[in-house]
């Protein structure tokens, strides 16, 4: 059975994930296409000096995007293994993330959200590292700093900043008032550096303009298409099943695992807010949602007692992904 194999923690996953990524991205590598960015989307400070240079080189952009997504899949697995909130050393969360992120051919490029995701992973590691640590100031600062760096690639990452404060209440014990102030400092530093560089180059008005475009520009992209609604709807359905699975085992989970999942739920909440209230958030929102959802869905598949329905749902998930990729 495919699902039973994927749930195991075997060394073969070191080969399976890159191979699966190449197969999923192969059409984009053979016939690469340029992504149609809305005004200001590709002009965020850090993306402007990294990925934006590859816009006119579609193949290199697709190859770099694939490399980042594969790395992200391994980070998904690494976080799960390191903090053990699934209580199962499985490569399944990384596989689910890779499949979901790779489902849309239009995202087979080095989109800013792919680069921002790397810093979201680093922020999550820093946040989880604060649990039961005596000195949490450095990790709290780092979490806010990484989210800030991510927002300099993909602006809506800024909506995740409040989880640094949420983590203080959920994971940390102490009444150090500086903990409330440190996230602001950590988040401000990258933007202060970026603003200073733009100021020295006499380009500060341009930075303000780019930020305004990333706030106000309507980015419907392919959200209203059948393929996006089909996959996102089924993805959410699986995440709901995963949440039910988590809640059914909540009492037997370690306290740390419960707290980590609370952070993931807050993460989902802030991302939903960004989707509902930010006109610039488009199809790429599913890339960030795939981070917590991959753990929810993996939890359902790993701990489901019935073998038939999880297997059938996983095959249906693969079928929907194949359909979406064919439709384009």
Q: Helix coverage percent of residues?
A: 55-70%
Task: Give the SSE order as H and E letters.
Answer: HHHHHHHHHHHHHH
Q: How many whole angstroms does the radius of gyration measure?
A: 20 Å
Mean pLDDT: 89
Number of domains: 1
Measure the end-to-end span: 29 Å
- Helical element count? 14
Shape: globular
Low-confidence stretches: none
Number of strands: 0
Largest sheet: none
* Amount of beta strand: under 5%
The secondary structure category is: mainly alpha
Transmembrane segments: 12-30, 50-77, 113-131, 143-168, 180-200, 221-240, 260-278, 285-302, 308-327
Keywords: Membrane, Transmembrane, Transmembrane helix
Pfam family, one: DUF6427
Protein name: Beta-carotene 15,15'-monooxygenase
What does this structure look like?
- By secondary structure, this protein is mostly helical.
- It has one domain.
- The chain has helices at 2-7, 13-30, 45-48, 58-83, 92-101, 112-129, 137-151, 163-171, 178-200, 204-216, 226-248, 255-277, 285-303, 308-327.
- The longest helix is centred in the N-terminal third of the chain and has 26 residues, at 58-83.
- It comes from Prolixibacter bellariivorans.
- The chain crosses the membrane at residues 12-30, 50-77, 113-131, 143-168, 180-200, 221-240, 260-278, 285-302, 308-327.
What would you say about this model in short?
The chain is an all-alpha fold. The protein has helices spanning 2-7, 13-30, 45-48, 58-83, 92-101, 112-129, 137-151, 163-171, 178-200, 204-216, 226-248, 255-277, 285-303, 308-327.
């Amino acid at each position: 059975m495919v699902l039973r194999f994927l749930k195991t923690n075997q060394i073969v996953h070191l080969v399976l994930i890159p191979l699966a990524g190449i197969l999923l991205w192969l059409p984009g590598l053979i016939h690469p296409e340029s992504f149609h960015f809305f005004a200001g989307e590709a002009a965020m400070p850090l993306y402007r000096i990294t990925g934006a240079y590859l816009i006119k080189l579609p193949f290199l952009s697709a190859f770099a995007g694939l490399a980042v997504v594969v790395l992200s899949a391994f980070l998904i697995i690494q976080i799960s293994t390191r903090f053990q909130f699934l209580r199962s050393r499985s490569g399944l969360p990384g596989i689910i993330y890779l499949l979901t992120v790779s489902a849309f051919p239009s995202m087979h490029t080095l989109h800013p959200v792919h680069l921002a995701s790397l810093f979201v992973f680093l922020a999550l590691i820093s946040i989880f590292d604060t649990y039961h640590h005596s000195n949490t100031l450095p990790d709290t600062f780092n979490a806010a700093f990484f989210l800030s760096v991510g927002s300099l690639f993909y602006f809506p990452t800024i909506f995740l900043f409040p989880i640094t404060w949420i983590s203080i209440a959920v994971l940390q014990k102490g009444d150090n008032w500086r903990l409330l102030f440190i996230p602001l400092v950590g988040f401000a530093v990258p933007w202060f550096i970026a603003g200073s560089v733009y100021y020295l180059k006499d380009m500060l008005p341009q930075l303000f303009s780019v930020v305004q475009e990333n706030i106000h520009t309507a980015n419907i992209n392919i959200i209203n298409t059948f393929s996006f609604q089909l996959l996102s709807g089924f993805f959410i359905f699986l995440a709901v099943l995963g949440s039910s699975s988590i809640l059914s085992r909540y009492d037997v989970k370690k306290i740390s695992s419960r707290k980590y999942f609370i952070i993931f739920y807050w993460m989902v909440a802030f991302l939903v807010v960004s989707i509902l209230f930010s006109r610039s958030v488009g199809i790429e929102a599913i890339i960030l949602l795939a981070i917590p959802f991959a753990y929810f869905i993996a939890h359902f598949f790993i701990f489901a007692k019935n073998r038939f329905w999880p297997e059938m749902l996983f095959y249906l998930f693969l079928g929907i992904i194949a359909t979406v990729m064919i439709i384009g």
